[in-house]
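Key result, reporting period 2: structure in, sequence out.
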């Protein structure tokens, strides 16, 4: 399932932004790109995401901007004292040297101290942010899922129509095939080859019985509709059903006693392949 969601929130580290992208994949492939200062939150983020998403290639990006404002910065008195001592030594070594300006002092490494970051508050803010973005992403994926479900149900309707057209053709096709077999049997019986006669009869019985395949196809289609109506994580179940549908359609095509039945089986296979392509995208 595809989807995209992004949101931001304030935290002790400044503005936190979390972005989630999801594209189609048969399995879950989660990639995290987290700012170095937030690496400790990776296990939490991974647990939250895998708890909501079971399938797809998911990219999660977390970053922050403008961690600490100037109003939050404080002077480091110890660093100022060290700088004053160094300035005094420099003035003694180089008489007449220009005194330090305020801007020079503030730019000196360590003079401006940032307040300690409250990691617990940052983690809590990131937890809330991730849950909010996940809600938006899952809602987008659900909307796409509803559209895919409608497409699949349309294919099921077409397949039911094909089955309803094929089923009445079976008796006529079997009768025509029986006539051909009878003619061949008369030729065989005229030679007294009983073994070949039994082989022809067995072949006829195997090729003419497609009621079982048609019944199983209808049953699998009912199961597809049931799974779609139930909702939830249905991708793997639908993938399995598509494989079963394809197997029955293949058997129907191989046992078709008439051209129209064979054509119907081919149309079924095309629709089933369309279903298989779509269910690869469903979680």
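The corresponding designed sequence is given below.
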């Amino acid at each position: 399932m595809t989807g995209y969601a992004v949101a931001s929130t304030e935290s002790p580290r400044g503005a936190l932004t979390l972005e989630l992208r999801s594209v189609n994949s048969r399995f879950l492939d989660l990639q995290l790109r987290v700012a170095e200062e937030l690496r400790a939150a990776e296990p939490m983020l991974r647990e939250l995401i895998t708890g909501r998403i079971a399938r797809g290639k998911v990219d999660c990006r977390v970053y922050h901007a403008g961690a600490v404002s100037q109003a939050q910065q404080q002077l480091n008195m110890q660093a100022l004292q060290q700088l004053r001592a160094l300035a005094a030594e420099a003035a003694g070594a180089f008489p007449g040297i220009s005194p330090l300006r305020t801007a020079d002092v503030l730019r000196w490494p360590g003079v401006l101290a940032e307040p300690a970051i409250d990691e617990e508050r940052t983690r809590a803010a990131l937890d809330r942010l991730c849950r909010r973005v996940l809600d938006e992403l899952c809602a987008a994926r659900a909307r796409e899922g509803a559209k895919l479900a409608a497409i699949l149900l349309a294919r099921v309707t077409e397949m039911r129509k094909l089955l309803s057209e094929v089923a009445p053709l079976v008796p006529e096709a079997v009768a025509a095939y029986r006539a051909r077999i009878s003619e061949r049997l008369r030729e065989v019986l005229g030679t007294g080859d009983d073994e070949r006669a039994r082989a022809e009869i067995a072949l006829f019985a195997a090729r003419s019985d497609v009621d079982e395949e048609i019944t199983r196809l209808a049953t699998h289609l009912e199961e597809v509709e049931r799974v779609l109506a139930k909702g939830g994580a249905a991708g793997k179940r639908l993938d399995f059903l598509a494989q079963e549908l394809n197997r029955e359609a293949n058997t129907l095509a191989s046992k078709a006693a008439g051209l129209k039945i064979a054509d119907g089986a081919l149309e079924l296979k095309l629709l089933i392949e369309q279903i298989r392509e779509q269910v690869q995208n469903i979680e």
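Strands lie at 3-11, 14-23, 28-34, 56-65, 74-75, 112-113. Residues 5 and 137 are 5 Å apart (CA to CA). This case is discussed further under Risks and Mitigation.
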